[in-house]
Design goal:
Elements: H1 4-12, H2 22-29, E1 33-37, E2 42-44, E3 52-58, E4 61-65, E5 68-72, E6 77-78, H3 81-85, E7 92-95, E8 99-105, H4 106-115, H5 117-128
Antiparallel strand pairs: 1-8, 2-7, 3-6, 3-8, 4-5, 4-7
Helix pairs in contact: 1-2, 4-5
Length: 136
């Protein structure tokens, strides 16, 4: 288990939370769960119910949607879009290596957004950018 301060410093390095101050990052870090996955383990598959966002702390994952595949690394995140549209997952994620994720549940993410609207702005900015790593 990582300490709260280690989690907060990790969050500070992510695009989603980089603009937040340490006090708020520590509050968010308290709401994070740690999930370990092994190489080749499926994180989720299309059709599964979405209930959390995944922040990659260690390792790499492959995101598969149709014939497209992209690779994500530490600092990247995935699984966020389904939390807002309440639709099942539309893609699969498989670990390319052993991986550690910090996850935030839908209820915790909505609580974070209500306490700090800049997180919502960061999510919107992320969606507004045309990045190949956002949606395969």
């Amino acid at each position: 288990m990582k300490s709260l301060i280690e989690k907060a410093f990790f969050l500070k390095k992510t695009r989603l939370f980089s603009e937040l101050d340490l006090e708020l990052l520590l509050a968010i870090a308290e709401k994070l769960n740690e999930d370990d996955y092994e190489k080749d383990e499926k994180v989720f598959t299309p059709g599964q119910v979405a209930n959390r966002i995944y922040l990659i702390a260690e390792g790499a994952v492959l995101v598969h949607k149709g014939s497209k595949t992209i690779e994500l690394h530490p600092g990247d995140y995935f699984g966020d879009e389904s939390l807002f549209n309440e639709q099942p997952r539309s893609y699969a994620v498989v670990c390319k290596t052993d991986a550690l994720f910090y996850t935030i549940s839908r209820s915790h993410l909505l609580s974070i957004i209500s306490e700090c609207p800049s997180v919502a702005v960061a999510l919107l900015q992320s969606y507004a950018q045309i990045l190949p790593c956002r949606h395969p």
